[in-house]
Design brief:
This protein has 144 residues and is α+β, with helices and mostly antiparallel strands. Helix content is 35%, strand content 32%. It contains 2 helices and 8 strands. A hairpin with a 5-residue loop joins strand 6 and strand 7.
Length: 144
């Protein structure tokens, strides 16, 4: 006659392991630094900064990205004649908070060649308290 007690113990260990793995999956997802909406807003913000830079090159005109911490938003401006023309207004609505920037006047200025007049950083914070710094380098590249 066979002794089945060993197989039962292996089965119990396997079942407990599988259940543990399944239960740990939601915990791993909640540990993410940003929500999906926050991540999309960050990507959009970086894309908008690149958009302003590219428009400056294509149009051979100065473009501005104005950071507005008090309203948790930013604006993109182009030059039309002697006036600034707003091209986009964006409010961070999904948990991202603008903490400030070290750009003079909270404004990134791209000359007609797409180079920023000065490099600098923009400080953002996620709803989970994670600090994000976006760096605009003097060559116009972005780093996070």
């Amino acid at each position: 006659m066979k002794d089945n007690r060993g197989i039962a113990l292996i089965e119990i260990v396997a079942v407990i392991s599988i259940i543990s793995i399944i239960l740990s999956i939601p915990m791993l997802r909640n540990n993410s630094r940003f929500t999906n909406k926050e991540r999309r807003e960050l990507i959009e913000f970086k894309n908008d900064i690149n958009y302003a830079r590219n428009r400056a090159i294509v149009e051979s005109k100065t473009h501005y990205v104005t950071i507005l911490p008090h309203s948790n938003s930013y604006n993109i401006y182009g030059i039309e004649g002697l006036m600034r023309r707003i091209q986009k207004k964006k409010i961070f609505e999904h948990g991202i908070t603008i903490r400030g920037s070290n750009f003079e006047g909270n404004e990134i200025v791209f000359n007609r060649f797409g180079s920023p007049l000065k490099g600098g950083r923009i400080r953002l914070e996620s709803s989970k308290g994670e600090i994000i710094e976006i760096t605009v380098k003097m060559d116009g590249d972005l780093a996070r």
